[in-house]
Design a protein that fits this description.
Elements: H1 3-22, H2 37-41, H3 53-64, H4 86-98, H5 109-126, E1 133-137, H6 140-155, H7 159-162, E2 168-173, H8 179-186, E3 194-197, H9 207-219, E4 223-230, H10 242-252, E5 255-259, E6 284-287, H11 289-292, E7 300-304, H12 307-314, H13 344-380, E8 384-386, E9 394-399, H14 403-415, E10 422-426, E11 429-435, H15 443-455
Parallel strand pairs: 2-3, 2-4, 4-5, 5-6
Antiparallel strand pairs: 1-7, 6-7, 8-9, 9-11, 10-11
The structure holds pyridoxal-5'-phosphate.
Length: 457
Amino acid sequence: MSPEEFRRYGHQAVDWIAEYLANPGRYPVVPPLKPGQLVDALPACGPEQGEPMEKILADFERLIVPASTHWNHPGFLAYFANSSPPEAILGELLAAALNGNGMLWKTSPAVTELEQVALGWLRRWSGLPDDWFGTIHDTASTSTLHAILAARHAADPETRTRGASRGLTAYASEQAHLSPEKGALALGFGQEYVRRVPVDSEFRMRADALGEMIERDLAAGLRPCCVTATVGTTSTTSVDPVPAIADICGRHGIWLHVDAAYAGAAAIVPEFRWAIAGCERADSFVTNPHKWMLTPMDCSVFYTRRPDVLRAALSATGVYLPAPEGPRTLNFMDYCIPMGRRFRALKLWFVLRAYGREGIVDMIREHVRLAQEFARRVDASDRFELAAPVPFSVVCFRYKGSDEDNRRILERVNASGDIFISGTVLNGKYTLHLAVGNYQTTGRHIGRAWELIDAAV
Ligand code: PLP
């Protein structure tokens, strides 16, 4: 493609994005698509000769867009809703142009250094310890995998040379995301050694139960290795009692990892800083700007106060790609499983600069206000009830009927194409889950959601 052609098609693509973001609500949030429909609409083999860009862009609009669930739709209120504003999209576009690979400092000083700068800003805005080491991964699942890997090395450094030994145990609450369990499984702990700690009536890990489990495991000759506490659980956004959990981990020398994938963003807002109380005592911490901080997939921030352990577990520069490392020439590949690392910091830096701390604070406050407004409607209705406290921007609620009734409501609401909510199970009951997290969601969308839900009974 010549520079002139690139200019033409580039403008065309940017024009399309501008139109799209001006009104993503014109599409159904979830496409009315049958599984396999897109596969069937596309050729089984790629083209022998390159095709013209007109045709590729036309097929993007004709086939790909209609097969997309629109996370940028302001009526997307499912899971942890999020969005990619134009500022972040520009960062992503330019990152692709530079095609930087931050495996070593010298393979792209900008990737390595901007990552440190952006994560330093985020750390300070969030009130996290200033000496924490940060890296960006694709997802919280990868960040947590690195936490458990470091925990395993701290508990059993011989793992590096002799492989994993039996009896290392990992802990997370019954309400924790699957990622701590998957991470432990991937690292060879074995399912029998992954503990799910019971929760209290507000879905927070019971520290007393954790303490007892650890005592029991120690008495049985096992080696408790890693506890994952969650700040903002996946279903209800409950916050585990991190200070009490940190006491237990400190007493037994167990690695404490905090999964703040969603609610970590709220730490920027002074009145939500309580959520990360005690996290300064953690060994590692993950927060996902791609969940509630305006950054497109994917961008997960991993902090640790013990990068030396991570490096001891993962560094391979002695045998491969020997590269000097000094105080200012960090080689991120020594702290990560992947060697190649894309320039995720650029879009994050664009967001942090374009919105500023206050812009992000305002957005989070507004999302919480909208969620509280919705929760008040639920509370005021005699047909619905809240199923969990609402500390942030997620509301879990139920129609006072059967699981079937609630499932039917979900299906009817989502079939509208205007609103997309999700479901979960709490205390054995099917529950509806509404999450505000998109920068274009307003009171109008929350009002429409309530209208559809109320009418779907
Ligand atoms: N942790 C929590 C609390 C989550 O809710 C999620 C996903 O929703 C994850 C981790 C996994 O995030 P990712 O999709 O970035 O792996």
